[in-house]
Every structure is written in structure tokens, then in C-alpha cells.
Amino acid sequence: MWARPEAVWGLFSVAERDLGVLGDVRDLDVLELACGTAYFSAWLARAGASVVAVDLSGDQLATARRMQRRRGPVFPLVQADAERVPLAAGRFDLVVSEHGAAAWCDPARWLPEAARLLRPGGRLVFLTNSHLSALCVPAGEGVAEERLVRGQREAYRVQWDGGGIEFHPSHGDWVRLLRRAGFVVDAMHELYAPPDGGDHPFYEIVSAAWAARWPAEELWVATRG
Length: 225
Ligand SMILES: C[S@@+](CC[C@H](N)C(=O)[O-])C[C@H]1O[C@@H](n2cnc3c(N)ncnc32)[C@H](O)[C@@H]1O
Prior knowledge:
The chain is of the alpha/beta class. The chain has a single domain, classed as Vaccinia Virus protein VP39 (Rossmann fold, 3-Layer(aba) Sandwich), CATH 3.40.50.150. The chain is 28% helix and 27% strand. The chain contains 8 helices and 11 strands. The strands form 3 sheets. The chain has a 7-stranded mixed β-sheet with strand order 5-4-3-6-7-11-10, with helices on both faces. It has a two-stranded antiparallel ribbon with strand order 1-2. The structure holds S-adenosylmethionine (SAM). The site of S-adenosylmethionine (SAM) has 17 residues, from loops.
């Protein structure tokens, strides 16, 4: 992912060039929450943004640091909880999170934190699993089925049989949570797999055939009021 020349979104690599969600990021102050190996930050830094990337995991950040040395560019990496980021308020024009905070952090905590970190008029862009896919993936792991396996309200906080908790609020919940945190919702893009695409090489949560029929991921865009 660090080697990719430009930004793509999600399991099936929808080009940012086609979606146009981020726009021109040159000279923007950008924060990535739950950055993992920080490849998304690398893409934005190469496009001219001034980036800071945050993750809870020292191991993920060690990989990010190794990739910075190997491929560049270098930007600050901060080990912290996305629900409590040790950075000054109102410092960023754009907060992004790609399969990060939205699934792993409590939305009642990380959305207000994202709002605190943004300047008025700043944007929040996050990618997460679709609410529909969360309704179709059995708790004992596995791949999204073509039937609903849990109730809509149960998906808000999913406890997987193998351990781990994920948050998959409904669309109504997201709108309410975003508004409560001071955001105005601008868009929600539903991402599909291309009709002729293959399965993802290691993320097995949805098959390409499933994701060609139903959106596997949601890309939310909101502005801080
Ligand atoms: C799917 S991964 C990262 C996504 C990233 N785009 C990537 O693929 O490398 C999710 C990340 O969320 C991080 N994470 C989980 N809970 C977190 C929290 N409370 N605060 C910050 N990061 C968290 C994990 O350490 C992990 O790196």
C-alpha cells in the first residue's frame, strides 16, 4: 500500500481520483486517526498535506516508521488512543480515518474528539464497513452471508466470538452522533466491488460477489460547524 502512487479507498481500491472526496490536500493540516501502518497518511503527505498520524499500537507504528525509512515521506507518528489524542484543539483542516476509529473506537467518544481537533469548517472523512455488511457477518467470524444474521440495533456494538468489539452504527445513528458532535453531514458514499473483481487477498469479511451486489463499505464526509 505504501508503494501505491495514489490514494484509493477500501477493499476493492476505488480511486480517490474517481470519487473526489478529499479534493486538493496541498498545504492542509491533516490528522489520520487509527492509522495502522499509515499508508493513507503517506499518500496525503506526497500530495502536499502536512500530516500527523495516530495509532494505539506501537507495533503498527514501528511498521509505519520502517516504511517511512524505506519509501518516504517522513511525518510525525503519535502513539495514542483516538478517543483521547494528546494534540492541541483546532489544529487540523482534515481528519481522516480509513477502517480505523469508526470500527474500533466508541463513536460517542471519538467523534467529539475529532471535532475538537478540527478547525471550524474543517472536514472529517472516514471509511468503515457498511452497516449492511455488519448485519450479515456471523459473530463466529466468517464472511458476509446473503441474509441478516443480527438485528439492526445489535450491530451498534458487536462482540465477536473470537474476542474484540466493533462499532457499526446504523445510518440514522451516524447522522445523530455526527450532529451531536457538531458536524454537518455532507455525503455518504457506498462502495461496491467492481463486477469482474476478485476477492481481497486477505480481508475475508465479504466476497467480491457479495460486494458487487451490496455496498461493503461506507465513506462518510462531514464538516465541523
Ligand atoms: C484496520 S487497522 C488500520 C487501518 C489502516 N488504514 C491500515 O490498514 O493499516 C485499525 C487500526 O486501528 C488501531 N486502533 C484500534 N483501536 C484504536 C484506538 N482506540 N485508538 C487508536 N488506534 C486504534 C489499531 O491499532 C489498528 O492499527
